[in-house]
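Exercise 7b. Backbone tokens:
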């Protein structure tokens, strides 16, 4: 099997992954999964597509992730891994991943600040007199 390359995005995070057969090593920016993500929620999000398809410990994954925070990066990695698994075996993995909504890119982004306002939606206090 050759190396499979996919991309995942969430908020302002971009994750590029390289998936190949191996022993289940996950390297994120040349650090292990446990060293890179400290929260259990982020670790769970990264492993969710692998657990859904029951292929944990079967593939080595090298990840380059940039931008955003912990949650955005974890969700970008989750989408990229799900897309890579679909490239491996579409008939088997796509229905399982689609059922858990792992192939959908989350479109929510930060709303921009408007001029004349302190924030995106916040307005200055109305003065009657």
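Sequence design result:
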């Amino acid at each position: 099997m050759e190396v499979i390359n996919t991309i995942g995005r969430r908020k302002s995070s971009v994750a590029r992954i390289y998936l190949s057969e191996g022993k289940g090593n996950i390297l994120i920016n040349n650090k292990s999964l446990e060293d890179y993500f400290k929260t259990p929620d982020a670790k769970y999000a990264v492993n969710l597509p692998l657990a859904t398809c029951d292929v944990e410990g079967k593939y080595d994954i090298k990840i380059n992730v940039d931008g955003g925070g912990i949650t955005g990066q974890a969700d970008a990695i989750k989408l990229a891994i799900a897309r890579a698994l679909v490239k491996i075996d579409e008939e088997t993995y796509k229905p399982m991943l689609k059922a858990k909504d792992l192939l959908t890119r989350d479109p929510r982004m930060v709303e921009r600040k408007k001029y004349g306002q302190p924030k995106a939606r916040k307005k200055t206090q109305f003065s009657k007199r």
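Instructor comment: Strands lie at 4-10, 13-21, 26-28, 31-32, 59-66. The chain has a mean pLDDT of 94.
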